[in-house]
Amino acid sequence: MSRRARLLLLAAAGLVVAGFFAAACLRLPAFGAAVHPYGERAVAAALGQRTANTVSSVNFDQRAFDTLGEESILYASVLSAVLLLRLARDERKHEPRPAPVLPSTRLFGAVLLPVTLLTGGYVVAHGQLSPGGGFQGGVVLASGLHLAYVAADYRALGRVRPLAVLDVADALAAGAFSVLGLVGLVAGAAFLQNTLPLGTFNTLASGGLVPVVNAVVGVEVASGVIVLLAQFLDQAVEVVER
Fold this sequence. Notes:
Layout: H1 3-26, H2 37-48, H3 54-62, H4 64-85, H5 103-125, H6 134-145, H7 147-151, H8 154-159, H9 163-186, H10 210-233
Helix pairs in contact: 2-3, 3-4, 3-10, 4-9, 4-10, 5-6, 6-10, 9-10
């Protein structure tokens, strides 16, 4: 296909998308309107499933199948980075040289590391009750672990970062999301439908399937981000002429 033909095809597709987008915008409620049909239905469904955090109810219950796709994209990205950045046959890996760290930086990192990990765990565990959840808490957990790199050096990070275990945890958590979807099918309902006992509203055990899926996502995001950053941090490449 010639360049001109590709541009014409792109322009035609753009016009179609623009037309549908304009038609959708014209049917939106007026700015500042008091009618919010989607929000009202989402809140009602969250309360009906005893999930205090409506956002988590939407992500892990009402449109859990969409969230499964988002998690799969993250897993595929991490897997692709690992494959692309792995050592080639003619590459060698050397131990990094330690660099001096200011005492204030070392103290700052040492104090904040356990606090950040605790905060990340709290955000994941309370995702169905308060703002946050598996995605946000997973990123906090991964970021907190890398304070060991800031406070000490790369070797210290390597000692507190079991990559082999995290690789397995990432894969198992990504697969567990799909397996949890089978709970609904076993119960005679739809895939990923919330069929577990709903528990008492506004408690850690409330929400049925929501806290379970939320925890699985937290493990997958935390493990995936740590593994992804490990691949990039290992790429301090020095080319030697032969």
